[in-house]
Amino acid sequence: MLAETQLLAIDDLCNRVGTYFTAEQVQNVRRAYEFGANAHSGQLRLSGEPYIQHPLAVANILAEMHLDQDTLVAAMLHDVLEDTATDKDRIGEEFGGDVATIVDGLSKLTQIEFESAAEKQASNFQKMLMAMTGDIRVILVKLADRLHNMRTLDSLAPEKRRRIARETLDIYAPIAQRLGINGIRLELEELGFATLYPMRYRAIRREVLKIRGNRKEIVEKINSRLKHTLRQEHLVAHVVGREKHLYSIYSKMKEKRLPFSEVHDVYAFRIIVDSVDTCYRVLGAAHGLYKPVPGKFKDYIAIPKSNGYQSLHTVLFGPFGVPIEVQIRTNEMDHVAEAGIAAHWLYKSGDNATQTAHKRAREWLRGVLEMHTQTGNSQEFLEHVKVDLFPTAIYIFTPKGDILELARGATAVDLAYAIHSDIGDTCVACRINRRLAPLRTQLETGQTVEIVTAPGARPNPAWLTFVTTGKARATIRNYLKNLQVDEAQALGKRMLERDLDQFSISLATLPTSRLRAALDNFKLASLDDLLTEIGLGNRPSPLVARALSGVPDDFPKPKQKRRLLRRTPVPSPLLIHGTEGMVVSFPKCCYPIPGDQVVGILTSGRGIVIHQSSCSNVVDGRDNHDKWVDVQWALDIDQDFTVELSLDVRNQRGVLATLAAAVANENSNIEDVEFSERDERYSHMRLVVALKNRKHLADLIRRLRAIKTVARVMRKKA
């Protein structure tokens, strides 16, 4: 672990920034230091040093990256709002609006009560990322802040050290990688690894040191041969041998389940040249010197990574049978590889590499902002962002020849949402290399993919089971959430009108004063909110109807006095059409279909769950009558419902094809199938099919029983 051994001085920082700042800008940085020192006066870090040492160290880290004046001033003041009595307006007056905005974006939410530490952490992270979308310098200061905190963790309690290290590896190191800031990312990973897994860190470090002496001679020999070959080809290049970082070794060992010897037995070299053309010429020379490993060449110059990183990567069969990793890039590309978006400030150049890094960072931030608008709460937002932070990329071509980057494992639906939310919402199929394919198909690098849309199409809840990108998941969930509210209101209105009818009133004739009084009693803002609560099963409709009717609570209920039954009719059953959407569901325990005797159970957050009356889950809950809803099937249903069949079939080739043909001939579809061997002659089969009603089911069972290879077929019992 790295630790500070001496106090930092403002003069050293001013001398450093004086190499690229004007005298006035240097003075502003010094003034910010004095302002921060006064604000934090008397405050000490847990290490015992003055608190101002922390913001000064953060500013030093950013000065190494040649960040601008406002960023360094904000770094010096980044804890002032949170830990002192200074407010945002005062900072704005003293140092300008940009500085105040950056500092505010870095300040944690301290005035809000949260239900859990996880919710608080997620909300603070969400606030910071939203500020980052307005000014990307917010995250640069935060990464420097986190790096200095990681360097000085020794003063904290062990549990807190581990929590901060886990957060660093899960969130901040991936953000640094996403923005291409490789230098900070590597140190965050090393420090986080050493803190979270100290024994593993020491073991790998010990092995690296043990073999370092033996490897030095081999590295020097390969380096010498590479340089000699390039000189023969009249290619000017800077060749550097490099050692793998401990966390990357550990990650590869864990991911591929390899022993240390196999992971570390790789020699890595970086070749830096003056132009893109020279990059490809060096590649040819390297392949002429050592034979390339098939399938290990990657051209990140033609197709840059999502963070703007550009380089040629190849793996060669080196001397003594050892693999050699070679990265070939220009000077500008090397700057971006180390500094990422910070290269935008570090070199102040207009070269394509730095502009590409900044542009791609902005594109990612736009996606983050869109995720924010589509997400219900901060913890859900944090999970979506985590999904997008570490994509192992694939590259897809559009029919027009454009290249799109997606995370490995992405499907056609992910691609559709990556293009535009409207395309994602209305996609119905895709063509991969001109052939129709299902939307759940995982895409591969190099494929040409066309998304097929339909104007009336809408997102399917089943998509959430296979989409991988945060943007797709957030957008689908947001749509379904809004859809569920609309469906809940419609169902809630039907249920409430039915129960109000007992009292000879309706929503249309209900006095406004009585409705308002009931809403106040329920602590709800509007009738729509009340209907949503009823439809989602959070509030029983009969009790709401009674409250709206004006009948006193102690007035006898209809079932208590026989004479009241004549005055207060029993509500008619709620008709189920199968088109109610997500607020009426049909569970897998009994798979009810039209024609079955059914009962509805109010379930909080899900609305009404329809069970067969004989279902064991209903029988076990008969005492909970306040959640029962009297339902029956509508007569005009034209929907498919799922049914599970249990079959015993002879072990014979082609039996599944025969069954599938029979199901298709009965105008049904197979949704799922499972085989389990019963004995040498027979196998047991679970067949889930889509049917219209009990008659359709009976017809299908008769057809299946007529097949010679089917020994037994029956519907699964509830």
Could you outline the blueprint of secondary structure elements for this entry?
Blueprint: H1 10-17, H2 23-39, H3 53-64, H4 69-76, H5 80-83, H6 88-95, H7 97-106, H8 117-134, H9 137-151, H10 158-178, H11 182-196, H12 198-232, E1 238-242, H13 246-256, H14 260-264, E2 267-273, H15 276-289, E3 298-299, E4 312-317, E5 323-330, H16 331-339, H17 343-346, H18 352-374, H19 378-389, E6 393-397, E7 403-407, H20 412-419, H21 421-426, E8 427-432, E9 435-437, E10 449-453, H22 470-500, H23 512-522, H24 527-535, H25 541-549, H26 564-567, E11 574-576, E12 584-585, E13 598-603, E14 607-612, H27 616-619, E15 628-629, E16 631-633, E17 641-650, H28 655-665, E18 669-677, E19 682-691, H29 694-705, E20 710-715
Parallel strand pairs: 2-5, 11-16, 12-14
Antiparallel strand pairs: 1-2, 3-4, 4-5, 6-7, 8-9, 8-10, 13-14, 13-15, 17-19, 17-20, 18-19
Provide a descriptive summary of the structure in words.
Helix 3 (53-64) runs antiparallel to helix 4 (69-76) and helix 12 (198-232) crosses helix 15 (276-289). The strands form 6 sheets. This protein has a 5-stranded mixed β-sheet. Strands 12-14-13-15 form a 4-stranded mixed β-sheet, with no helix packed on it. Strand 8 (427-432) and strand 9 (435-437) form a beta hairpin. The longest helix has 35 residues, at 198-232. It is of the alpha+beta class and 718 residues long. Among the domains are: 10-151, Hypothetical protein af1432; 641-715, Alpha-Beta Plaits (2-Layer Sandwich), CATH 3.30.70. It starts with 9 loop residues before the first helix and ends with a strand. Residues 1-5, 109-115, 344-350 and 558-568 have low confidence and may be disordered. Helices cover 49% and strands 15% of the residues.
